[in-house]
């Protein structure tokens, strides 16, 4: 079982979209990535603030550990947006050359 669809499947999915849908999808993925980063900062701040009184400076490590999944996980949506825009450019150039 894979974590993500194959590159060919994702490319076919992007090809089936219109230009506007591709731009909208990329914008949505960028927003998802930014949301994950902001949620990570909230998690980091909440963990540090909540645990500081009981474990002191170790709360920084606990906060980073809790937030790192969100921060590093945001790479997925950012990569999907980048990939979609690259494929959109290729598809649009191919249409212009065909005309």
* SS-based class: mainly alpha
Low-confidence stretches: none
Number of alpha- plus pi-helical segments: 4
Q: State the end-to-end CA separation.
A: 41 Å
Q: What fraction strand?
A: under 5%
The helix/strand series, from N terminus to C terminus, equals HHHH
Number of strands: 0
In round numbers, the mean pLDDT is 93
CA-based shape? elongated
Helix content: over 70%
What does the main sheet amount to?
A: none
Rg: 19 Å
Write the layout of secondary structure elements.
Blueprint: H1 7-15, H2 19-55, H3 58-73, H4 75-98
Question: Can you describe what's shown?
Answer:
The protein has 99 residues and is mainly α. The chain has a domain at 26-94. 87% of the residues lie in helices and 0% in strands. The protein has helices at 7-15, 19-55, 58-73, 75-98. α2 (19-55) packs antiparallel against α3 and α2 packs antiparallel against α4 (75-98). 13% of the residues are buried.
């Amino acid at each position: 079982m894979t974590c993500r669809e194959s590159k060919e499947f994702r490319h076919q999915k992007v090809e089936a979209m219109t230009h506007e849908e591709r731009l909208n999808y990329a914008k949505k993925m960028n927003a998802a990535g930014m949301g994950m980063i902001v949620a990570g900062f909230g998690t980091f701040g909440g963990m540090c603030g909540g645990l500081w009184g009981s474990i002191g400076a170790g709360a920084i490590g606990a906060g980073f550990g809790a937030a790192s999944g969100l921060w590093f996980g945001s790479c997925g949506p950012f990569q999907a947006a980048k990939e979609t825009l690259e494929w959109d450019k290729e598809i649009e150039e191919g249409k212009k050359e065909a005309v």
